[in-house]
Prior knowledge:
The protein is an alpha/beta fold. Helices cover 33% and strands 18% of the residues. The chain is globular and about 75 Å long.
Amino acid sequence: MAMAMGFATPIKFKASSIINNSDHYHALDSSYVKRAAELSDKSAGFTSPHPNFGCVIATTSSLRNVVGEGYLYAQGTKPAEVQAVEAAGEYCRGATAYLNMEPGDCDGDNTALSAFIQAGITRVVIGIRHPLQHLRGKAIQALRSEGLQVDVLGEDLRSVSMEDALKSCLLVNAPLLYRSASRVPFSVLKYAMTLDGKIAASSGHASWISSKKSRSRVFELRGRSDAVIVGGNTVRKDNPRLTPRHGGGHLPMRIVMSQTLDLPEVANLWDVREVPTIVVTQRGARRSFQKLLASKGVEVVEFDILNPKDVVDYLYDRGYLSILWECGGTLSASAISSGVIHKVHAFVAPKIIGGRNAPSPVGELGMVEMTQALELIDVSYEQIGADVLISGFLQPIPDLTPVIPSVDETSAIDPSLSPYDSPIIFFYKTWDPYGSFSNFSPHPIRMPDESGDYVTWSSVEHYYQAHKFVGSSDPNARSYIEEIFLAKSPEEAARMGRKMQREHPRMIRSDWESVKTDVMYTALKCKFSIYPHLKSMLLSTVGCVLVEASPHDLFWGGGRDGEGLNYLGRLLMKLRSEFVGDDDDDDDDTHKPPEFSTSCQET
């Protein structure tokens, strides 16, 4: 998939509804910001949900010709701003860049901002400020301090057309906005029903209510989600697979909620060769069945009291942005009552099934008067084959227009306040404050291969996953290494490596369990050695405990309740101590050659 579009000569972008009056330039600005939002959505379904960034660069002539475009394919890949600058080339000088969202310096080196400044961009139009507190307003301030004109929709630019563009920017990053404001993943309830409001016949038979085109749209919705949730009744009656079925790309986690674990021993969801499954249940439920699931590779997570709110809180800690609920009426009602559902997609088929006992999409909510009914907002209607898709929000997209003080601004107000008072520093996703510590961060490393020749790996995770197969006696191992090497993102490299390890355990090098921490440490040491800003960031944490906050990885992460081994955090603290020791040695002998120069090269 191409991610950057370049043009040998400028071409005219067809801005819609442009009128020849004083609103002309506002209409152009609006159309390009909407285009950036449209671009940012192009990776949906191919990678795990992530902040969506798109960038359009246009010349400042009266026609405002588009000269470059780009979008973020996945976390850990080349920023949209850099792609657009590279595509536009010399046409950047004096041009305007349009972004759906303020750049986020997740790399720790201001890559996107530097690209604009060095290319000669003179104006930047931004759809929305970054919703994450530690990134909010920083890029805007940095660009303005370099002399660039920065206009933000709803703040510096106001008009009817701007409101439309702003809405596009909010919608495309709704998951991140909800996660930031509510501290829960963006949750979407999806169901298909007949014209008389039934999701199955009285017998329970439900295949199929909606059309084939509607079911294809459901596959697309799954591909846009981090996880798909169903209840135990759905597993028992429908035996679903819950896969996107689009031939590759992102595969969401499959989650089953069941208090009693009254589930079949054989089910499609217990086949985890392609897609993992989590079963969440009440603590102590059917221990023997839990062991059976574990033997099949299904992850079981227990809760003291199983309810939708605690489950989404757990998924928030797991780093998820977007959840799709495909459950029956009982669980749907519980999720709505818990306040965790933000949006609804209802596929209505022109069929009537009747039946006093036929189930409906939402169970008992405790409402007795029509005035208590929940009303959707921002409702849309779409014809899909013979069906009608009705979509709307139960909770409005969070309004982040009021400027929330950034970390720097807070410190300026009260120097005694620090956002990092805790001696424990958690890191997990690459957009976190210390996200650059992650093995998924977008920092290429150059490491020697088996013959001593240096090879550039796109990330530490690429290097780590590929080295599961280095030295394997199986002749097919080399092709696996090459596939991982060419993976477009760290997430894809991880998915490939884990899948190959599950399906072909004999392909894994025989000493992997004993050397995997050394492989990770070598790669981390290279990364922090060749990027000075990362080394400085690591050294700034002296005196703090570093914890990789993954709630599910009990080896590299800290686990859900601190039960994890936190090996990634341990390796970083070990590396930090080594760097501190090297700095002390440098004070004694400034002519001592760097120990690591023989195993790592600058990229």
